[in-house]
Amino acid sequence: MIRRSGPGGSSPAKKIAATEKTPINSVGQDALCTIFSLLGIFDLVRCSVVCKFWYKIINQKKLLQQFCCKHFANHGGLHDEPDISKKPWRFRLEELVMEHQKLSLTRGRVTIDQWKGHSIGVNQCRMKMGTILTGVGDKVMRLWSVESYKCLEEYSVPDTVSLVDFDFDESKIVGLIGTQLCLWRRNGQRSIFPPRAGTFPKGLCMRYLDPEAVIGCEDGSIRVFDMYSRKCSRIMRMHPGPVTCLSLSDDQFVFSGSSAGTIKVSHLSSDACVTTLRTPDITGIKALCYNPRSGLVFAGSSAGYVSCLDFRNRRKLWELRVSPSVLYSLGHMQNDDSTLVVGGMDGALHVLDQKTGEGLCSYVMDNTAASTSSGTVERRKGRRLSVDDYNSLIDKIPRTARPPVTCLAVGKNKVVTTQGKYIRLWKFTGHEL
After folding, report:
1. What is the average pLDDT across 113-141?
2. Which of 74, 237, 284, 347 has CA atoms 20 to 30 A from the CA of 34?
């Protein structure tokens, strides 16, 4: 499904489809094939989901397959992998997407659109389905459009409690409020779990994978709640100290980090610990991210280290100190096993190679006046720094220009961050395949 265009204009796919008087399938197949052959790979993918008629043409003519084969032939892929024709074209398409993502994050131009989304600051964000959910700084969560930056919906938090963490899907928002869970329907209806069923020791973090919400608690336990029965279905005692961060996999593995620097892996079907992963850095773990495609676990620490551990082989692959101070958040685009984006106290975005741990580059916002402004949204330029430039220049950039990155979420050619009072959308452009 193609989203409505924002202030930046429409893609070629939308321009082709945007006609009120001419039916979408009135253009002949030969004409459409000619038009489609002139498009880039990502616009061609967008066209393939406009309607069944377009999908049929693109699929029957094997336009995506031809593009993939042509691209890899031009870049030496056919010589390096003689069996390319035997591989599914969708697999090759995924490789193209990841290649484009890496080029955009490391070589493309960056612009930053920022706006004040909350009255007293914001330090949590989630990005899904073309929307951004932000909150925790005040008594309200807000859902924003990624394209227009308009506030689509608001969800109020009860006055007597504080919002700690949240997650959402297409129909509901699940929030951790003190020692209870709260559920907001997308139609605005709010309900708090009954005290006896939904109360637990102080919760510090939460992740949601329908139909279960998983909560990391101050007493070192992990509590699993069924969102339909509204009862605690499992208590897993994993750590001797507080559980500081969580990550879930689609196959129901739970990765939990602690203030003692250990990572415990458990499964939603059992109370037992599957394995323990240890990082060389003994300081507390502040952020966790699991990549199901590669089986790698990434951890960010209080001392500025990022560690990569191989879950399948139970071993450490690499460790890198990317910042002199605490790292609060890290992530990658879904299914991307090439790049990792990290943010923390230093206010910079760091891009790493997932496989090797090599620091590819860092980004900060240019400390100049806004280049453009539209209502409450300001557009600024981003500045890319090499590893050497970062080490020599970061302390010379005023702290007011780089407030801490308290949370981030990574999408296609974009990263959303929460920094002080601002929500920032970093857009990376300039590299086409």
Report:
1. 90
2. 74
DSSP string, 240-267: SS-EEEEEE-TT-EEEEEETTSEEEEEE
Helix (H), strand (E) at residue 361 = strand 359-365
Count Cα atoms within 13 angstroms, Cβ side, for 131.
19
Residue 50 belongs to a domain: yes
Spatial distance between the Cα atoms of 219 and 240, rounded to a whole number of angstroms? 7
Domain that holds residue 95: 29-75+88-103
d(CA 419, CA 348): 10
Contacts of 432 (CB under 8 A, 6+ apart): 40, 100
Residue 275 corresponds to which tokens in the numbers above?
A: 């394995």
Q: How far apart are CA 180 and CA 200, in angstroms?
A: 7
Q: Is the pLDDT of residue 281 over 60?
A: yes
84: confidence class by pLDDT, cuts 50, 70, 90: very low
Instruction: Write out the E strands in 178-326.
Output: 180-185, 190-192, 203-209, 212-217, 221-226, 231-237, 243-248, 253-258, 262-267, 273-278, 285-291, 296-301, 305-310, 315-321
- C-alpha 406 chain-centroid distance: 13
**Total tally of structural domains belonging to the chain:** 1
User: Looking at the domain assignment, is residue 152 inside a domain?
Assistant: no
Question: Is pLDDT above 70 for 11?
Answer: no
Question: Alpha-carbon distance 339 to 415, whole Å?
Answer: 12
CA distance 81 to 77: 6
Alpha-carbon gap, residue 31 to 157, rounded angstroms: 54
In a domain, 96, yes or no: yes
In a domain, 168, yes or no: no
CA distance 5 to 190: 31
Q: Which two tokens stand for residue 157?
A: 């938090």
Give the integer Cα–Cα distance in Å for 387 and 86: 40
- Mean pLDDT for all residues in the chain: 83
Please name the amino acid found at residue 379.
R
pTM for this model (two decimals): 0.82
